[in-house]
């Protein structure tokens, strides 16, 4: 029996309504996700961007004999509550390195205390009314100002809020990532090559494969426990060091790299392998000369994304002692160091108001590094993907 | 070695009633001798007791309906089946008096002497020049750059591709047309100067004009090489092949001089297939 157009469109109307409803629901979900993202970034930017500026006071510094013992004596007494306590050590150190400066004086921009900084930025602070008046006066004459925060990017952690910076964490992250990359990349890639190109498909290799996939899903803190038990307690790798942290994170990154590499190898068409075998390549020549070059972009992107994931990791590093107060930039792989997420975690626990913006500022630095790493991975993929 | 009519007295060759004839007038040198070859994919037997002599500097076509084992048999000749884990092979494939499946035979050495051209053109994702030069360099056939250039030119000339690509040797091999790519693959195969070239339906992905070019090429190449080709196209077998083997369900039903086979097939099944009644 045939249906008229009217009957069919009656039924179609219901179907169209249904698909329209679904479309709206999914668009709503997308919009909600986008909204959260925007809110998150707006919050982080509004909180974190001020951290890149810092209050400085322009004042006369008198490099006297007394000042070389206590830096505070180089300043007018009424200014002292406003100037950062760091001068106690900074001025004598400067004079010890340049003894010829003793007896001179100069006009200089000195770091103000975090209270002044927070007052200028309109945040909660503990300044008295007189101090506020004093600052307002100097702001009017341009002697107190917010300037680019060199300290934040140029020094390590400090208990003095205005003196705390992210540099030691950045260097620690770089060193840790170098260790992670050097360990997990070659081992991961070779494992994947063996499993994908050489290993027979039997119960044993299937077991290994299942276990590798499971490893990728293990809570990262367990890798920290493993790192503590094996690397630190058994092999005696120094605690808190980039070496210990990097090795621990390498364990975590390994399954990610193995899985990414296997996927990349699998995406190389078999016809290329057959062609190579057909002209008399050995298995290793097939892999090295034909399969790996084609799989490389995929391997690189997978590894970079695995690395970025490791870079944002805090939990396993808590266990191996990398969440600690590290004021100095570590000079070797065995010295105590901290990493960016750990530094953020440490700052977030500080009670002082000034550390709130440091926390957000640290997150901004970490985020921009992660975003640029991921962007680099995308560019790499686009550049090398199917060159021919 | 002059081959006489089918010799069945070797220990590998049981006295079975295989359909096995050949043109008595032609007297060619033996290239590959196959005796009682059986092959299983897991539990299912794909080749059943094959006996065949392949002759040097001839084109032998393997025809038969889909799934009859002709491609599988072809891959036995350069041990490409080794790449499939579930394959199990019994029987003799002999080249130059040596069993190619023997433990001491290196499959890399075998594939150096038995080249292969695949159904779908599969040039390496490298330059045209590199496609040819890679294998000879790998096998240490050339040491100096000049020798290498010469070899690339010769291989491309033999494959009838030189005039079309001589000005763009550094361009990717995949930038060529399908027919040119297939000739590039042939050039790649002959660059290592093999004895035998296996072709697995080399023209099935190509247009009629490219197909004709490849067929002419096969005719020329048989002066230097032994060619074994699988084809679905009976006209093609009739045009290019000196000998034709008809496969059916893993067995060789008939093997004979192509002209004889296509004019007076000995078996009913062959006749049915050739006349297009099935397949």
Describe the structure.
The complex is a heterodimer of chains A (388) and B (279). The longest helix of chain A has 44 residues, at 5-48. Chain A has 388 residues and is mainly α. A 3-stranded antiparallel β-sheet of chain A has the order 2-1-3. Chain A folds into 2 domains: 53-148, no CATH class; 167-384, MetI-like fold (Orthogonal Bundle), CATH 1.10.3720. The radius of gyration of chain A is 29 Å and the shape is extended. In chain A, helix 6 packs parallel to helix 9 and helix 8 (220-234) crosses helix 9 (242-266). Chain A has helices at residues 5-48, 87-97, 114-120, 129-140, 150-154, 167-198, 203-215, 220-234, 242-266, 270-278, 283-311, 315-319, 340-348, 353-384, and strands spanning 53-62, 105-111, 144-148. In chain B, a hairpin with a 2-residue loop joins strand 4 and strand 5. Chain B has one domain: 3-Layer(aba) Sandwich (Rossmann fold), CATH 3.40.50. By secondary structure, chain B is α/β, with parallel strands linked by helices. Chain B has helices at residues 70-76, 107-113, 128-138, 145-158, 162-165, 178-190, 208-221, 234-240, 258-263, 268-274; strands spanning 30-41, 44-55, 59-63, 87-95, 98-99, 114-117, 196-200, 226-230, 243-248, 251-257. Chain B contains 10 helices and 10 strands. Chain B has a 6-stranded mixed β-sheet, sandwiched between helices. Classes of the chains: A mainly alpha (388), B alpha/beta (279).
């Amino acid at each position: 029996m045939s249906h008229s157009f009217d009957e069919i469109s009656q039924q179609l109307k219901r179907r169209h309504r249904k698909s329209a409803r679904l479309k709206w629901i999914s668009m709503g979900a997308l919009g909600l996700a986008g909204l959260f993202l925007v809110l998150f970034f707006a919050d982080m930017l509004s909180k974190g961007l001020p951290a890149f500026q810092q209050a400085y006071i322009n004042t006369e510094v008198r490099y006297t004999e007394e000042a070389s013992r206590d830096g505070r004596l180089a300043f007018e007494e009424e200014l002292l509550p406003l100037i950062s306590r760091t001068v106690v050590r900074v001025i004598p150190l400067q004079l010890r390195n340049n003894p010829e400066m003793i007896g001179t004086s100069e006009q200089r921009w000195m770091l103000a205390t975090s209270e002044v900084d927070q007052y200028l930025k309109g945040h909660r602070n503990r300044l008295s009314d007189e101090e506020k008046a004093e600052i307002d006066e100097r702001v009017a004459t341009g002697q107190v100002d917010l300037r680019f925060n060199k300290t934040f990017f140029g020094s390590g952690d400090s208990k003095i809020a205005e003196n705390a910076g992210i540099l030691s964490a950045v260097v620690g992250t770089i060193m840790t990532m170098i260790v992670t990359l050097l360990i997990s990349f070659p081992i991961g890639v070779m494992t994947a090559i063996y499993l994908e190109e050489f290993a027979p498909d039997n119960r044993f290799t299937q077991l290994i494969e299942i276990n590798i996939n499971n490893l990728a899903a293990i809570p990262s803190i367990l890798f920290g426990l493993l790192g503590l038990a094996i690397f630190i307690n058994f092999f005696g790798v120094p605690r808190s060091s980039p070496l210990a942290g990097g090795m621990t994170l390498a364990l975590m990154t390994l399954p990610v790299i193995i899985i990414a590499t296997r996927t990349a190898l699998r995406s190389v068409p078999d016809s290329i392998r057959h062609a190579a075998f057909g002209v008399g390549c050995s298995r290793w020549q097939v892999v090295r000369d034909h399969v790996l070059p084609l799989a490389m972009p995929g391997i690189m992107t997978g590894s970079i994304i695995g690395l970025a994931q490791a870079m944002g990791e805090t939990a396993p590093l808590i266990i191996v002692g990398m969440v600690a107060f590290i004021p100095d930039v570590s000079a070797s792989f065995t010295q105590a160091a901290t990493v960016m997420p750990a530094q953020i975690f440490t700052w977030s626990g500080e009670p002082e108001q000034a550390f709130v913006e440091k926390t957000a500022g640290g997150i901004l630095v970490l985020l921009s590094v992660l975003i640029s790493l991921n962007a680099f991975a995308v560019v790499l993929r686009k550049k090398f993907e199917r060159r021919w | 070695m002059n081959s006489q009519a089918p010799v069945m007295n070797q220990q590998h060759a049981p006295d079975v009633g295989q359909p096995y004839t050949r043109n008595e007038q032609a007297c060619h040198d033996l290239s590959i001798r196959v005796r009682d070859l059986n092959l299983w994919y897991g539990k299912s037997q794909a080749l059943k007791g094959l006996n065949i002599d392949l002759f040097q500097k001839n084109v032998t076509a393997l025809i038969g309906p889909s799934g009859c084992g002709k491609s599988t048999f072809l891959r036995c000749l350069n041990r490409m089946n080794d790449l499939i884990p579930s394959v199990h092979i019994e029987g003799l494939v002999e080249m130059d008096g040596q069993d190619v499946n023997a433990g001491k035979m290196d499959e890399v050495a075998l594939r150096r002497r038995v080249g292969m051209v695949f159904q779908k053109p599969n040039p390496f994702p490298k330059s045209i020049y590199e496609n040819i030069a890679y294998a000879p360099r790998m096998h240490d056939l050339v040491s100096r750059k000049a020798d290498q250039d010469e070899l690339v030119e010769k291989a491309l000339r033999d494959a009838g591709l030189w005039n079309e690509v001589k000005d763009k040797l550094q361009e990717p091999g995949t930038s060529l047309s399908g027919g040119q790519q297939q000739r590039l693959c042939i050039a790649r195969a002959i660059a290592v100067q093999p004895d035998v070239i296996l072709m697995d339906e080399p023209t099935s992905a190509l247009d009629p004009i490219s197909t004709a070019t490849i067929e002419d090429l096969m005719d020329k190449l048989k002066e230097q090489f032994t060619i074994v080709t699988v084809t679905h196209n009976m006209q093609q077998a009739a045009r290019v092949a000196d000998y034709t083997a008809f496969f059916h369900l893993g067995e060789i039903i008939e093997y004979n001089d192509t002209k004889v086979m296509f004019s007076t097939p000995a078996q009913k099944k062959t006749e049915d297939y050739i006349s297009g009644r099935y397949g």
